[in-house]
Amino acid sequence: MSVTRRQILQGMGVMPLFNFNLAGFCNMPMAKDRALIVLWLDGGLTHLDTFDCKPEAPVDIRGDIKSKKTSVDGVFFAEQLPRLGKLMKKLTLFRSITHGEGVHDRASQYLLTGHRPSPVLSHPFLGAVHALGAKDSNMPALVAIPDAPTHGKQGFLAADKGPFEVGGEPGRPGFAVRNLKPRVSTKRTGLLRKIDALDGKPRSDSEKARDSFLDQARALSLDAEARAVFNLDKEKQQVRQRYGRHKMGQSCLLARRLVENGTKTVLIRDIGWDHHRDVKRALTYGFPGKYVLLDQSISALVDDLERRELSDKVLLVVASEFGRTPRLNPAGGRDHWPRSQVVLTFGAGMKRGVAIGSTDRRGEAPAEGAMSPADFHATIVAALGNDLEQSLHTADGRPIPVVERGGKPVREALR
To answer: How do residues 241-292 score in pLDDT, each as one tens digit?
Structure first.
């Protein structure tokens, strides 16, 4: 009976730790000692019902969700976001991001990578690029909670630059990362290397990447302190309550634990933001509803980062693939609208209490300060202290700029 390499790896108990494809390599850029947390609202956040409300617009535009002034003049949030409204004086709000990609996959690719969708090249997630500057540590450089969307991965980079996906729901009792307990041994890994050496050929780039992944998995599983970072039971109950005992809140808490202990990038993915019907009910109904999730989770994370003196070391980005149509549809929902959208940020490298750009009175398009996803990407790269001129290389040696040509950082957002 023939045995495949995958079966051998599975028998070692290492393969389930990481998901990867074998492709590519890169030149690592140098970065400041800063970490990135991305809260990805998968589906398309409605800007008019959250962070870019238009209280003076007709009811068929503003809807029947009331808005309220924030702590920054001229900025209105939904009244169901009271904590964030008060915190706006510490946040940076981008209100004029615009592009032409109205399909989820293509829009997600543009926002997560900063590069226009390409049929021939899969660009890496901006957080995967930032994670290349991670110091040597047994902690994964890039972690996805609970998993990463298609374009939240390593793209053309080497396989070992992909995300460690924790799986499961941190908000559920008894949450634990799968396959994290040690199941590997020196004998098993030694056997694998002997099998690999049988063909007598030099190691290919893909094999080197796989070896690196296995080394990472073994180091993490054998490091009790690193494994403990993923254990939310180590936190005080009042801290867990402050974040909220739900998936988003506990994911944000886990993200804070990770960046505090050496992880370079954490991607939190929250699904269910594609509100084509009854947008008010979609945002308010639930246990808890989307409004409560956003308001409690983000405000707790911001407060915690400040309390732990991490606000100059960690950059938080709350983003989605596009906005929603200014006019409510007949079903009371909003459809895809890439012409205007919002992104909320806090922390390292960013000015506080600033609203960048604005949309017209109906929220249809930027009125001033229009910026592309490439411009926003360049702004994040600059805020994190990465090299705007840096290039990566595909598997065949083709240089690809980290910042898409034409993308320029918005200086008024940066400290």
So the answer is: 999 999 999 999 999 999 999 999 999 999 999 999 999 999 999 889 999 9
- Specify whether the CB–CB gap between 59 and 51 falls below 8 A: no
One-letter amino acid for residue 55 of the chain:
P
pLDDT for the residue numbered 49:
97
Single-letter code of the amino acid located at 266: V
User: pLDDT under 70 in the chain at which residues?
Assistant: 1-32, 181-194, 196-197, 199-201, 203-219, 221
Cite the beta strand spans of 14-153 per DSSP E. 35-42, 67-69, 76-78, 92-97, 142-145
Domains annotated for the chain, with CATH where assigned, are 5-413 (3.40.720)
**Predicted local distance difference test score (pLDDT) of residue 286:** 87
Residue 176, pLDDT score: 86
| Cβ-proximal residues to 142 (8 Å cutoff; 6+ apart), any chain | 127, 128, 131, 154, 161, 162, 163, 164, 263, 264, 265, 266, 267
User: To 10 degrees, what angle do helices 290-307 and 247-260 make?
Assistant: 20
pLDDT for 135 equals 80
Distance CA 47, CA 295 (A): 15
For helices 373-383 and 104-113, what crossing angle results, to 10°?
30
* DSSP secondary structure, 146-174, as one string: S---TTSS-TTS-GGGS-EE--S-TTSTT
d(CA 415, CA 413): 7
Q: What is the DSSP letter of 124?
A: P
Structure tokens at 159: 């396989």
CB 48 within 8 A of CB 59: no
The pairing of strands 341-347 and 92-97 is antiparallel
Residue 12 is predicted with a pLDDT of 42
Report field, pTM of the whole predicted structure over 0.85: yes
Query: Which secondary structure element, helix H or strand E, spans residue 299, and what is its range?
Result: helix 290-307
* Run of H or E residues at 346: strand 341-347
The whole-angstrom separation of Cα 79 and Cα 51 is 10
Among residues 290, 353, 322, which one has the least CA distance to residue 78? 290
Virtual torsion, Cα 402, 403, 405, 408, nearest 10 deg: -160
Distance (Å, whole) CA 5 – CA 381: 38
